[in-house]
Design a protein that fits this description.
Oligomer: single chain
CATH architecture of the largest domain: Up-down Bundle
Number of strands: 14
Strand content: 15-25%
Number of domains: 3
Radius of gyration: 40 Å
Number of helices: 16
Largest sheet: 6 strands, mixed
C-alpha cells in the first residue's frame, strides 16, 4: 500500500505548526507587563554542554512543546517572537518563574543578522538582577527591530510553573521592591526570633527554648537560601546554594516536632502524641540526612513537601487538641500560628495554577504565613516560660510556708538568717502547754492554739520583725538592727511584744498556757548558729524558772 502524499504533507504541516505555535510576536512598545504562561511553551531537550552555542540550542527547536513542566526536571527550551516598532531602543526585563535553577542562557535572534547572547543566569554565581524566588535578565531591543528571544533552562526540579513575564524597568523595580522586601523582612524577623529563643536557652537551659530556636531559625535560613539570597552572598561554583532551602527543611520539621512535644509536656499530657512526635522527628532527620548525603534533589524535594503536608496536619490537630484540653495561651498561639502557615501553604499550591502575579507571589505568601507562625510560636514559648515561672514561684512559696499558721517555716528562716550580713536580733519562742491541750481537748484544739499564738505574736511584734514556725511548738522572731540603733533597744522591744502576746493569750481561752522565750543578738555570737543556740539556751532557762515557780 502506497502512502498518501496528501496525508504526509498534512502531518508535516501540523508538526511544523506545533513547533512554531509559540513564535507569535510580542509588541514591547507599550509600557505594560506582558505575561506568557507556560502552557505549551517549553520543549524538553537534552542537557547541553557547558559551552553552549546558538547552534546547539536552535537544532532542538523542532521539539513539540509540553503542556506543563511543573514537577519535571532537566533541560527545557522556549522561543518567542518579540518586536519593537518604535523609533528608539527599548529596555525590558524578562522574569522567569524558576527558583531551583542550575543554568540559564538567553539568545536574541534578529530577523536580519546574526544571533547574539543576551545573558547567562541562574545559580550558582548569578550575574543577573536579584529577584527573590525568580530569575531575571535585562535586554535591549534596537529601534524597529524584530526577532526571536530564545531561553534555555536546566534545573533539578521545576517547583512552580515556569511562566515568563516581560516587564518595563518601572514595573520590574516595583516587583523587585515588593518581593525582595517581603523576603528580607520575613527572614530577618525569623532569625531575630530564633536568636531570642537561643538567648533564653543559654540563660535558663530549657530544652524547649533550644527546640524553638531550631524551629524558627532553620526555617529562616532555609527560606533565605530558597530565595536566592544565600547564593548572592556566598556564590558557589560546584553546588547550587538555592538547594539548601529544601535540604534544610526536614531538620526544621524535626525541631518543630520536638518543640511541640516539650511545649505541651506531651510525655505526661498525651503520651501517644509524644511517641508520634518523636517518630516524626526521627523520620524528618532521616530524610534530611539522606537528602544531604545521597538522595537526588528531586527526591529530597518531594520528600520535604510530604513532610510539610504531614506537619501541617499534625500541628493543627495538636493545636486543636491542646486548646480543648489545656485552654491556655500557649495552645492558642500555637494553633493560630500553624493555621496561618497552613493557609499560606494552601494558597501556595493553588497559586501555582492560577496566580498571574497581580496580588502576591506564592513564595511571598508562604514567607508571610511562616513569619506569623514563628511570632506565634515564640509567644507560645513566652507563655510556657510564664507558666513555668508561676509553678516555680508557687512551689518555692509553698515549700517555705507553714501550712497551719501561714507564716514562714524552718527553711524560710534558715534562708533569711543566712542572708543577713549586718546586725540582727532573734528570739527563740516556745508555746507552753501544747501537750496538755492536745491530751485534754484533742489535736484540733492544739492546732487552734498554735494558730492563735502565731497571730498574737505577729500582731505585737514590730513591723519589721518576721516570725517563723521552726517546729511543733517552736517559733523564731528575726529582726534586723539598723546601724544607728542599739541592739539592746531592739531586744527590749521584742521582749515587750512577746510578753504582750502572752498576756493576750492567757486572757483568752488558754489560761494555763504561756510563751517562754530567749532573746539574743548577732553582736553576742560569732555565727548564726551560735546566736540561735544562745537564744535557745535563754529560752530554756526561762522555761525552767517558770516551772520552778509553779511548783
Amino acid at each position: 500500500m502506497r502512502p498518501n502524499p496528501m496525508l504526509y504533507f498534512l502531518g508535516l504541516s501540523l508538526l511544523v505548526f506545533a513547533s512554531q505555535a509559540r513564535t507569535f510576536s510580542i509588541d514591547v512598545s507599550k509600557d505594560l507587563p506582558v505575561y506568557i504562561p507556560e502552557h505549551r511553551l517549553w520543549r524538553a531537550v537534552p542537557e547541553l554542554p557547558d559551552k553552549v552555542s546558538f547552534t546547539d540550542i536552535e537544532k532542538h527547536a523542532h521539539q513539540i512543546p509540553q503542556t506543563s513542566v511543573l514537577g519535571n526536571r532537566g533541560a527545557i527550551l522556549a522561543f518567542i517572537g518579540v518586536k519593537n516598532p518604535t523609533l528608539g531602543p527599548v529596555n525590558r526585563y524578562l522574569k522567569i518563574d524558576a527558583n531551583y535553577l542550575d543554568r540559564g542562557i538567553a539568545y536574541w535572534q534578529p530577523s536580519e543578522g546574526d544571533p547574539e547572547i543576551l545573558s547567562e543566569f541562574g545559580q550558582p554565581a548569578s550575574q543577573t538582577p536579584h529577584l527573590a524566588h525568580s530569575q531575571v535578565f535585562v535586554f535591549t531591543l534596537p529601534a524597529r527591530s524584530e526577532g526571536r528571544l530564545w531561553v534555555y533552562l536546566d534545573a533539578k526540579q521545576y517547583a512552580v510553573p515556569v511562566n515568563l513575564t516581560i516587564l518595563t524597568p518601572a514595573a520590574f523595580h516595583n516587583t523587585q521592591v515588593k518581593t525582595n522586601t517581603t523576603a528580607i523582612l520575613s527572614v530577618g524577623v525569623m532569625l531575630t526570633l530564633a536568636l531570642i529563643a537561643l538567648l533564653v536557652f543559654f540563660k535558663n537551659r530549657y530544652s524547649v527554648a533550644l527546640a524553638c530556636a531550631g524551629y524558627i531559625g532553620l526555617h529562616g535560613v532555609g527560606w533565605f537560601a530558597a530565595a536566592g539570597s544565600l547564593g548572592a552572598l556566598l556564590p558557589a561554583t560546584t553546588f547550587n546554594p538555592v538547594y539548601w532551602g529544601m535540604l534544610i527543611f526536614p531538620f526544621a520539621i524535626a525541631a518543630a516536632s520536638q518543640f511541640t512535644r516539650l511545649l505541651f509536656n506531651c510525655a505526661t499530657v498525651a503520651p501517644r502524641l509524644a511517641v508520634g512526635l518523636r517518630y516524626l522527628s526521627l523520620l524528618s532527620v532521616g530524610i534530611g540526612v539522606i537528602g544531604l548525603i545521597a538522595a537526588p534533589f528531586h527526591v529530597s524535594f518531594w520528600s520535604a513537601h510530604f513532610i510539610a503536608a504531614t506537619w501541617v496536619l499534625v500541628s493543627i490537630t495538636t493545636g486543636i487538641y491542646m486548646v480543648r484540653k489545656l485552654g491556655d495561651y500557649r495552645a492558642r498561639f500555637y494553633l493560630l500560628g500553624n493555621v496561618c502557615y497552613g493557609v499560606s501553604l494552601i494558597y501556595y499550591m493553588v497559586a501555582h495554577f492560577y496566580w498571574r502575579g497581580e496580588i502576591l507571589g506564592p513564595e511571598s505568601a508562604v514567607m508571610i504565613g511562616l513569619t506569623v507562625d514563628c511570632i506565634c510560636i515564640l509567644m507560645s514559648l513566652a507563655f510556657w516560660l510564664h507558666h513555668q515561672q508561676a509553678e516555680y514561684l508557687q512551689t518555692f512559696t509553698l515549700s517555705r510556708l507553714d501550712p497551719l499558721t501561714n507564716i514562714g517555716n524552718r527553711l524560710a528562716f534558715t534562708e533569711a538568717l543566712e542572708q543577713h550580713t549586718q546586725q540582727y536580733c532573734l528570739a527563740f519562742i516556745d508555746a507552753d502547754g501544747l501537750k496538755k491541750i492536745n491530751d485534754k481537748y484533742g489535736h484540733k484544739a492544739g492546732d487552734l492554739f498554735l494558730v492563735e499564738c502565731s497571730q498574737l505574736l505577729v500582731a505585737n511584734l514590730p513591723g519589721d520583725c518576721i516570725l517563723y514556725r521552726t517546729g511543733g511548738d517552736e517559733f523564731v522572731a528575726l529582726q534586723g538592727v539598723p546601724l544607728s540603733a542599739e541592739a539592746f533597744t531592739v531586744e527590749a522591744q521584742i521582749r515587750r511584744a512577746i510578753l504582750a502576746a502572752e498576756r493576750a493569750l492567757q486572757a483568752d481561752t488558754w489560761t494555763e498556757s504561756g510563751l517562754s522565750f530567749g532573746v539574743a543578738s548577732s553582736r553576742e555570737a560569732e555565727s548564726h548558729s551560735a546566736c540561735l543556740s544562745l537564744a535557745d539556751e535563754r529560752m530554756y532557762q526561762q522555761k525552767m524558772q517558770k516551772k520552778a515557780m509553779s511548783d
